[in-house]
């Protein structure tokens, strides 16, 4: 029997799918593994516990992670990205910028969660992030250990994902947000959960009827190779007004004369880090 389901857990080649009140351990056809937590899939039920994924419904969004070797899927159909950053360990601004760009490319409203506000070093980080608030990004200070109330309204009616560098407090935040949801997914058998710490790519938890939270492991880089260099200005809020202002319509803002973006950078109208980031990304996408 064919039916729709929601992937709530991905473990390499296996997926846990929720469908019509039941949970199935699913394999895929052939060698196909390009499914992600949050995907709505077509499944063929085989018995009470097993099914096969036959295809995937069109996605509203798809986030990728990238390591030295390859790109993998993080989560699908996410509507809210919560980027977790903290003063300790040293935050990676490149990762933040890649996350913001991935969000912009899908019109997802990203929120920068500044965790560990109890640490004295946090003020310096908030000062460093001020330019991002200037670009319109919401910055929400929290403490996973003391007070997470500011996060709750951000989750309502959304499929949210917490992402960030290892050590920023994602697991602590997730545990604080999930006391109820943990119990709800408790009916997935222990066997399916075995190896969770080594192989689970992501898990989706139901917070309430309309809100989900996807938990994914710490990541080094967002995969952005699906983007096209000529589209990049659309994803930088501060550069959008310059679209169409360069002398050459196909300007990629590297060496071209009459480049409005380069002129703006020279006049200090763009944060140097953001301009460098645009150029780095243009080179990266050009080579891919
Ligand atoms: N002071 C302080 N420490 C925190 C806070 N939240 C988390 N931590 C600590 O930060 C460290 C890392 O937290 P985790 O939740 O394991 O971080 P993570 O981002 O999930 O890291 P990975 O599991 O490696 O991806 C732990 O020692 C936590 O106790 C906080 O609000 N304040
Ligand atoms: Zn240009």
From TrEMBL:
Its cofactor is Zn(2+). Binds 1 zinc ion per subunit. It holds the Pfam family RsgA_GTPase. The keyword DNA-binding does not apply. Residues 76-220 form the EngC GTPase domain. Residues 65-222 form the CP-type G domain. GTP binds at residues 115-118, 164-172. It is an enzyme of class 3 (hydrolase). It comes from the Bacteria. InterPro entries: G_CP_dom, NA-bd_OB-fold, P-loop_NTPase, Ribosome_biogen_GTPase_RsgA, RsgA_GTPase_dom. Keywords: Cytoplasm, GTP-binding, Hydrolase, Metal-binding, Nucleotide-binding, Ribosome biogenesis, RNA-binding, rRNA-binding, Zinc. Monomer. Associates with 30S ribosomal subunit, binds 16S rRNA. Belongs to the TRAFAC class YlqF/YawG GTPase family. RsgA subfamily. PANTHER family: SMALL RIBOSOMAL SUBUNIT BIOGENESIS GTPASE RSGA, SMALL RIBOSOMAL SUBUNIT BIOGENESIS GTPASE RSGA 1, MITOCHONDRIAL-RELATED. One of several proteins that assist in the late maturation steps of the functional core of the 30S ribosomal subunit. Helps release RbfA from mature subunits. May play a role in the assembly of ribosomal proteins into the subunit. Circularly permuted GTPase that catalyzes slow GTP hydrolysis, GTPase activity is stimulated by the 30S ribosomal subunit. This is Small ribosomal subunit biogenesis GTPase RsgA. It comes from Crenobacter cavernae.
């Amino acid at each position: 029997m064919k039916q729709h389901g929601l992937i709530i857990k991905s473990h390499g080649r296996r997926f846990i799918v929720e469908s019509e009140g039941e949970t199935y351990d699913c394999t895929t056809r052939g060698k196909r593994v390009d499914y992600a937590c949050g995907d709505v899939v077509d499944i063929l039920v085989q018995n009470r516990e097993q099914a096969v994924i036959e295809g995937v419904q069109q996605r509203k969004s798809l986030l990728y992670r990238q390591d030295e070797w390859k790109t993998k899927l993080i989560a699908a159909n996410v509507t809210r990205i919560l980027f977790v950053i903290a003063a300790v360990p040293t935050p990676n601004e490149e990762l933040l910028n890649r996350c913001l760009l991935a969000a912009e490319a899908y019109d997802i409203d990203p929120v920068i969660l500044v965790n560990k506000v109890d640490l004295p070093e946090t003020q310096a980080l908030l000062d460093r992030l001020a330019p991002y608030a200037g670009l319109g990004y919401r910055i929400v200070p929290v403490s996973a250990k003391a007070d997470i109330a500011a996060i709750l309204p951000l989750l309502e009616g959304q499929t949210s994902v917490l992402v960030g560098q290892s050590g920023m407090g994602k697991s602590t935040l997730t545990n604080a947000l999930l006391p109820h949801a943990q119990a709800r997914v408790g009916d997935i058998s222990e066997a399916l959960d075995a190896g969770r710490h080594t192989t689970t790519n992501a898990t989706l938890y139901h917070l309430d009827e309309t809100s989900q939270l996807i938990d994914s492991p710490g990541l080094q880089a967002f995969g952005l190779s699906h983007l096209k260099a000529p589209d990049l200005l659309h994803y930088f809020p501060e550069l959008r007004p310059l679209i169409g202002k360069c002398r050459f319509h196909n300007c990629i803002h590297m060496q071209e004369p009459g480049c409005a973006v380069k002129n703006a950078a020279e006049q200090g109208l763009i944060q140097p880090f953001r301009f460098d980031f645009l150029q780095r990304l243009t080179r990266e996408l050009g080579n891919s």
